């Protein structure tokens, strides 16, 4: 049976461990030891070296006692900053917050705790279950870097449930975007701003014209967003700026639309720079690729059944955030990102509650115990 006290203790213990992205060594060791204590063993991959970070991804394989296809449950072990010296404060109304000066880390430690408690309870009860795989990734927050270094060939599951979504437990996202980031480097020519401004090529001016013409914000069809997030350039008030760099990102539910948007920016940048006598380079990186899991797919059917078994009201949504599910989908694994008892994530007002933690653990257990 799920044990509320054990779950809350585990969650509070996880919160006390510092696990910023690329610095999850202590968390990784704690989770390994916890798994061992409940009779499971985790294999850590070589991602620590590849990233580089201090911990790799953990994979646990639990042989099934039912002859059914395997299922994968996933959560990540890193948290966003401010993440050092976190402490979980349990309030009389059963809400759990941080002490106010750090994030709580319910993203994604609430997901991790729910999965670990469900596994502990399942093994303790000797409940019949299908083969299960638990994937606990490192460095998810920096655009799923840990999953990017994971060898998906080691997985047998064709269905996955990633516990990493804000919202009421029972909510699940079946659609997530492509996320591209870009850096525009503009080269102008320096000149004295008073003596000979005519001989300069104004790199900041080029950037301004480009950004003014870019379609920032959400597209009319609500499929795509474009943002310029940082800009820097110039060296002094009396110098025509020689260089300007701006960075941004594109998100879209359509991978083709994201690529097309990037090409538009590339073209606009090249034309504007050359018209004004300068040069420009656009660097870009695709962090995750869009996916959509069909509502009539087995993964969605399984989720609806498990949520109902857990006494939850299942509901599908889409998310404009990336998660490890994007990587799983790229490797032929169909699934959902499910809400896991976290709210106001990526802020010091992040919170959860005992009841929501229990609901997430019930969902994890119901998925593990699915009979068909
Ligand atoms: Zn997360």
CATH C-level label of the largest domain: Alpha Beta
Through-space gap between termini: 21 Å
Q: How is the CATH topology of the largest domain named?
A: Aminopeptidase
Category by helix and strand content: alpha+beta
Helical content stands at: 25-40%
Order of helices and strands: HHEHEEEEHEHEEEEHEEEEHEEHEHEEH
Characterise this structure:
The structure is a single chain. The chain has 372 residues and is an alpha+beta fold. The protein folds into two domains: 4-176 and 290-368, Aminopeptidase (3-Layer(aba) Sandwich); 178-288, Alpha-Beta Plaits, CATH 3.30.70. The protein has helices spanning 4-16, 25-37, 47-50, 106-125, 145-148, 203-213, 255-275, 298-309, 324-330, 354-368, and strands spanning 42-44, 58-62, 71-76, 89-90, 95-97, 132-137, 159-165, 171-176, 178-187, 191-192, 217-218, 224-233, 239-240, 243-252, 279-288, 291-292, 315-318, 334-339, 351-353. Strands 1, 2, 3, 6, 7, 8, 16, 17 and 18 form a nine-stranded mixed β-sheet that branches. Strands 11-12-14-9-15 form a five-stranded antiparallel β-sheet, covered by helices on one side. Helix 8 (298-309) packs across helix 10 (354-368). It is elongated, with a radius of gyration of 24 Å. The mean pLDDT is 97. It binds zinc ion. Zinc ion binds at residues 76, 107-108, 140, 164. Residues 76, 107-108, 140, 164 line the site of zinc ion.
């Amino acid at each position: 049976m799920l044990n509320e006290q054990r779950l809350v203790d585990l969650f509070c213990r996880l919160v006390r461990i510092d696990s910023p992205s690329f610095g999850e060594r202590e968390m990784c060791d704690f989770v390994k030891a916890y798994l061992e204590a409940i009779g499971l063993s985790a294999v850590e991959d070589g991602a620590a070296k590849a990233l580089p970070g201090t911990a790799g991804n953990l994979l646990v394989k639990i042989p099934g006692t039912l002859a059914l296809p395997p299922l994968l449950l996933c959560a990540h072990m890193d948290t966003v900053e401010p993440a050092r010296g976190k402490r979980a404060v349990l309030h009389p109304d059963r809400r759990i917050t941080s002490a106010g000066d750090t994030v709580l880390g319910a993203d994604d430690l609430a997901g991790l705790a729910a999965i670990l408690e469900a596994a502990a309870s399942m093994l303790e009860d000797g409940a019949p279950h299908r083969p299960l795989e638990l994937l606990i990734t490192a460095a998810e927050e920096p655009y799923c870097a840990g999953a990017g270094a994971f060898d998906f060939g080691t997985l047998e599951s064709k269905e996955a449930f990633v516990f990493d979504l804000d919202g009421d437990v029972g909510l699940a996202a079946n659609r997530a975007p492509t996320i591209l980031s870009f850096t525009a480097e503009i080269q102008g020519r320096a000149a004295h701003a008073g003596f000979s401004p005519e001989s300069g090529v104004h790199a900041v001016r080029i950037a301004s014209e480009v950004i003014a013409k870019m379609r920032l914000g959400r597209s009319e069809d609500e499929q795509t967003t474009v943002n310029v997030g940082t800009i820097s350039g110039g060296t002094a008030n009396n110098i025509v700026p020689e260089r300007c760099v701006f960075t941004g990102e594109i998100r879209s539910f359509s991978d083709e639309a994201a690529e097309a948007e990037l090409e538009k920016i590339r073209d606009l940048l090249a034309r504007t720079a050359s018209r004004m006598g300068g040069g420009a380079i656009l660097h870009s990186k695709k962090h995750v690729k869009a996916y959509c899991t069909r509502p009539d797919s087995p993964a969605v059917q399984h989720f609806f059944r498990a949520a109902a078994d857990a006494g939850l009201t299942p509901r599908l949504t889409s998310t404009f955030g990336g998660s490890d599910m994007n990587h799983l989908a790229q490797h032929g694994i169909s699934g959902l990102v499910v809400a896991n008892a976290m709210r106001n994530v990526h802020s010091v007002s992040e919170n959860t509650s005992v009841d929501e933690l229990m609901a997430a653990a019930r969902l994890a257990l119901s998925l593990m115990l699915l009979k068909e």
